[in-house]
Amino acid sequence: MSLPPNFSQAVDLSSLGKPAPDTSTVMPGLVVTAENLQAEILPLSSTKPVVVLCWSARSIESVETLRALGNLESADNKKWILATVDIDTQAPVAQALQARTIPYGVVFIGGQAIPFLEQALSETQLREVINKILTLAAQQGIGEEPVEATEPEEDEALAALDQGDYATAEAAYKRLLARKPSDNFAKLGLAQVQLLIRTEGVDGQKVMEDAVRHPDEIAIQLQCADVEVMSGYLEPAFERLLRLVTILDGNEQKVVKDRLLELFGLVDPADPRVIKARAALANALF
């Protein structure tokens, strides 16, 4: 790897005018130098991702980023390797890594360099980035994919489901969604549990016969669609509710539409049956 000159022309030093933070304690990570980068640091990336952070003791943000990465490396029990480039003592190395501001991060996976950081991030944000790095590396046969920690409410819900206690599982998922409204796994879990609740103890054969006799009874058609989805008959369920959407309006139409969207959410969005039904729903509504 060549080490271009004129590093000072490539690095934005505008953020370095602040008082230097205390770095008297030992900073985390392997120290990268021009001598060990190619001989020692890069070969490590054949077995684990090597996360390299360019930093300076004169930049509070980069020091905080480095310490946060050190915390994450320890928490991950060395599933990846943290290495550091002090731009004040290793300017040519930072230049070779194409650092133009700090903190600046690049990860090596199997010897390939991938920039991943050009601004300070919180430790929570860095956790998400590291998980993506680990996943990418695992897809290339290097290291292991991260194991996502489950939420306590999710653990409670799954334990309740094992016992057939759907009400407790539903309550647990609702509490999780109240705390994390955008949690897609919780949304899916709640929808699954509510489908189980709606179909528990139902005589599927009788429901389907009633649906034939009463094609315009909304409650019966909704229940029949639930039974069909539980039985794997997705297209008949979708078509059943789509027909109602086209003949209803107002609040009744909304009830059916919302149930249809809920059932869509139980299936892989790439499933052609879902794609087709979603298009039909859009046509019916607009």
Protein architecture, described:
InterPro entries: Thioredoxin-like_sf (IPR036249), TPR-like_helical_dom_sf (IPR011990). Pfam families: TPR_20 (PF14561). 54% of the residues lie in helices and 9% in strands. With 286 residues, it is α/β, with parallel strands linked by helices. It has 2 domains: 7-139, Glutaredoxin (3-Layer(aba) Sandwich); 152-285, Alpha Horseshoe (Serine Threonine Protein Phosphatase 5, Tetratricopeptide repeat). Strand 2, helix 3 and strand 3 form a beta-alpha-beta unit.
In spatial order, strands of the major sheet run 1-3-2-4-5
Instruction: Name the shape in a single word.
Output: elongated
The helix content is 40-55%
The span between the termini is 59 Å
Number of strands: 5
User: How many domain modules?
Assistant: 2
- What structural category do the secondary elements indicate? alpha/beta
Number of helices: 13
Q: Remind me, CATH topology of the largest domain?
A: Serine Threonine Protein Phosphatase 5, Tetratricopeptide repeat
Radius of gyration: 28 Å
Q: For this structure, what is the CATH class of the largest domain?
A: Mainly Alpha
Which residues sit in consecutive blocks of at least 5 with pLDDT less than 50? 1-24
Named at the architecture level, the CATH assignment of the largest domain is Alpha Horseshoe
Q: What would you call the quaternary organization?
A: single chain
Strand content: 5-15%
Pfam family, one: TPR_20
